[in-house]
Amino acid sequence: MRAVAGYIPILLDCEGRPCLVIGGGMIAERKTQALLEAKAMVTVISPELSQGLFTLYETNRIMWERRVFAGGDTQGYWMVHATTDQEMVNQRIAEEANLKGILVNVASHTEASTFLNPAVMRRGRLTIAVSTEGAGPIVATNICKLLNEEYGDEYEIYLDFLYLMRAEIKKSVNSPKQRHKLLRKLTEYPILEEIRQGRFKAWSETQIHLWIAKNEED
Predict the structure, then answer these.
(1) Each residue of 80-116: b (16+ CB within 10 Å) or e?
(2) pTM of the full predicted structure?
(3) Is the pLDDT of residue 94 over 80?
(4) Residue 4 banded pLDDT, cuts 50, 70, 90
(5) Within a 10 A sphere around the Cβ of 143, how many other Cβ atoms?
(6) In what order do the strands lie in the sheet with 63-65?
(7) What is the full DSSP assignment across 186-215?
(8) What's phi and psi for 62, nearest 5 deg?
(9) Its Gene Ontology biological processes (predicted)?
(10) Is the C-alpha dihedral spanning 107, 112, 113, 116 positive or negative?
(11) What is the mean pLDDT of residues 47-75?
C-alpha cells in the first residue's frame, strides 16, 4: 500500500494569476470553470474545445491556442493543469512544470501532480474541501453533498456577520488580548440560532460599538 503523501491543505489566491489548462475536454472545462471562479487569467491549449469551453472563449473569458502542447508552453504560468487524453503528453507537461517550479496538476496521475483539486462545498464565505488523495473522488463528492445538507444558507448570513464584526473589532480595539477575548465571546453569542429561527436582524453601527464596549468591560 502506498504511503499517504505529504499534502498540506491550503487555499491559494488565484486572482489575476496566469493559469494554463492543456486539453479541451470536460475535465479541462471543469478545471477552467474553477479557475475562473477564483478570478484567474486562463489560457487553454488544445486543438479542439468542449462546447462549454468554446462558449467561454467566444465570450472572451479565456484565451485559446488552437494546437497541441509543445515544449516550453508552461513558461510564464503560475499554475498548470494537464488534462489531455495522452499519458505521455501529460507526463511531459508535469516534468516541464516541475523543472520550472510551477504548480501542476495531472488529472489522470496523482503521483505526477504537485497539488490536488479536492471536492468543495461552498456557502458564501464558508469553504470546506474534502480529499481522498485520489483514492476515491466520488466518495469525496458524496461527503460534500452531506456537508451541503448540514451547513445551510444560514451560514452565509452568519459568516458575513462575523466578518463585519471582526473587521470592526480589529479597527476599534488595540490590544491583541482584548481582540481575542471579544472574538471568542462573539462565537459564543447565539447569532446562528437567531438566524435559523428568523429572528436575526443586521446590527447597526451603534449596536456593534455598544456590544464591543460592553464586552470589553466584562
Answers:
(1) bbbbbeeeeebebbbebbbeeebbbbbbbeeebbbeb
(2) 0.84
(3) yes
(4) low
(5) 17
(6) 63-65, 41-45, 18-22, 79-82, 103-106
(7) HHHSTHHHHHHTT---PPPHHHHHHHHHHH
(8) -135, 160
(9) siroheme biosynthetic process
(10) positive
(11) 98
Lowest mean pLDDT among 80-89, 131-140, 155-164: 131-140
* Cβ atoms of 31 and 52 closer than 8 Å: no
Q: Provide the residue type at 134 as one letter.
A: G
Cell of 96: 516541464
Q: Distance between CA atoms of 90 and 106, rounded to whole angstroms? A: 6
Using CA atoms, how far residue 29 sits from 36, 66, 153, in Å, is 10, 15, 27
Q: Note the pLDDT of residue 166.
A: 94
**Contact status, residue 114 vs residue 141, Cβ threshold 8 Å:** no
Q: What is the enclosing helix (H) or strand (E) of 122?
A: strand 119-123
Coil/strand/helix, residue 12: coil
The answer to whether the Cα torsion of 156, 157, 162, 165 is positive or negative is: positive
CA dist list (Å): 3 to 109, 116, 138: 16, 16, 21
Amino acid at site 87: E
Q: What DSSP state is assigned to residue 57?
A: H
| Interatomic CA distance for residues 21 and 23, integer angstroms | 6
